[in-house]
Amino acid sequence: MDRENKYLQFVLKYYAPGRFDTRKALASYKSSHPAVRLSLWRPYAAGVAAMIAVCLLVGYYLMRGNDNPVVLYASDSTATYILPDSSEVTLYPHSSLSYVPSDFNDDARDVDMRGRVEFNVRRNPQAPFTVTATYASVRVLGTQFTVAELDGDSITEVSVTSGKVLFTAKGSAEGVVLTRGMEAGLQAGASRPVVREDEVAAPQVRRFVFDNAPLADVLKELSAHFKVELSCPTKGKTLTAEFESDDLDEIIMLIEKSLNVKIERKVKK
Amino acid sequence: MALTLQRTDVDEIFRRYYRPLCLYALHYLRSPENAEDVVQDCLADFLEGMGEGREVADVKAYLYMMVRNRCLDALKRDSRIDHDHTADEFEESIAEEDYEEASFIEARMWTAIDSLPEKCREVFLMSKRDGLKYEEIAEELDISVNTVKNQVSKALKTLKGACHKVYMFFFG
Question: pLDDT tens digit string along A143-170?
Fold first, then answer.
């Protein structure tokens, strides 16, 4: 009895309701170790394993089968997927995106979409990325933009975060070219989209990507963006570079250093 | 008691060992929070090892050894080996070799206290833990002294029963 009393005193000293709670500890363990739990032999584990196997099989079949379209959905929350070319698509709730694996390869990347989808396309000039919506079609080389079907799909909106896209009515060859910060809408049945001049939602920092571009073109693009006139007496230079900056002086300095040229700058009247 | 993960599972290990191990660790660490952390880590590592196919002949001995080593490590790390707490005579009188046996009985007591009706537990703790007199408890809770007496004796009986059962279970 004496020993028991000692134990009881020890317990009483530290006892508090809810302390050393086995159920709580177990729940916390399970939430941080889901994989281990699956490896246990529980009556339903076999069922779960079978389900996973079926899902994997179906997924594998869909990814493999060259003519079966791969369909991506977002249900009640946005979902981000990586496409086989490592382009990233973010599907807004209740949007979908599909592509046929045989039409998504090294020569062309064609996807179909419904709803509202944000694209961050992996740059690849050899394989144009074409998004087809219910009424519209957008062709890109590598850029970041959003396509949204609004008002019961009667309006399709495209906004470009970076890069350049060609926005046309479905099946039409003529359209509008959109660059960073531009937005255009297409009314169902219209032959070409209309650019929204007033809604320029430019991101804070502009990203310039030049891939072996003639220096003259580079300066033209920079001039347009920074509202200045840039010129260079040296001809025939090309530039491959990527700038993520709003500091024109820095960009000019970098170009001058890397190409060993002198760039002249005039303020636009 | 050779257990492998095929025959038992996580729930069973937690149900059987979690609380005794916590009390075992508490004897070393004297901090309920640290004891909980050590035991949780040990069980997680142990189960991970089992998941990878490790076989352990005596799960109980293995877990106790694991917890003991980690407690000693923790004490060394915090260099709290020179106990800054004021150990009372009861704790001092439990020798380290008895910690394991004590922890099982203490876990039973702990569970028994947990399962007491709330009012009964309150009265019992005020009496035995806080050392209040029956009259003081009666006044504090606005109940009769007789009720206090009854509740305390009811609680003690439950505890005795729990301890007895544990003796029967492990040593009987």
Answer: 778 888 876 667 888 888 777 788 888 8
In this complex, the residue of A11, A16, A36 whose CB is nearest that of residue B109 is A11
Of B22, B32, B129, the CB nearest to A12: B129
Residue B171: per-residue pLDDT? 46
Classified as helix, coil or strand, A192 is coil
Domain B1-95 and domain B116-172 have a common topology: no
- 3 state SS of A80: strand
Architecture of domain B116-172: Orthogonal Bundle (1.10)
- Encode burial over A89-103: b for 16+ CB neighbours within 10 A, e otherwise: bbbeeebebebebeb
> Taking an 8 Å Cβ-Cβ cutoff, which residues of chain A contact chain B?
4, 6-17, 19-20, 22, 25-26, 28-30, 32-33, 35-37, 39-42
Distance between alpha carbon B67 and the CA centroid of its chain, in Å? Answer: 13
In the three-class reduction of DSSP (H, G, I as helix; E, B as strand; rest coil), residue B109 is classed as helix
Q: B125: which DSSP letter?
A: I
The residue among B171, B113, B127, B123 whose CA lies nearest residue B151 is: B123
Alpha carbon of A48: minimum distance to chain B alpha carbons (Å): 17
What are the chain B neighbours of A20 within 8 Å (beta carbons)?
Answer: 18-19, 22-23, 32, 35-36, 107, 110
Does domain B1-95 fall under CATH 1.10.1740? My reply is yes
Question: Which chain B residues are closer than 8 Å to A27 by Cβ?
Answer: none
3-state helix, strand, coil in chain A (%, to 5): 30, 35, 35
When pLDDT is averaged across residues B121-137 and rounded to a whole number, the result is 92
CA atoms within 13 A on the CB side of A106: 0
CA distance A117 to A110: 14
- Asked if the Cβ–Cβ distance from A13 to B18 is below 8 Å, we say no
Structural domains present in chain A = 2-59 (no CATH), 74-196 (2.60.120.1440), 207-267 (3.55.50)
Sheet strands (E) in A133-206: 136-140, 144-150, 155-162, 164-169, 175-179, 183-187, 194-196
Q: Where are the domains of chain B?
A: 1-95, 116-172
Calpha distance B155→B112 (Å, rounded)? 9
Mean pLDDT value across chain B: 82
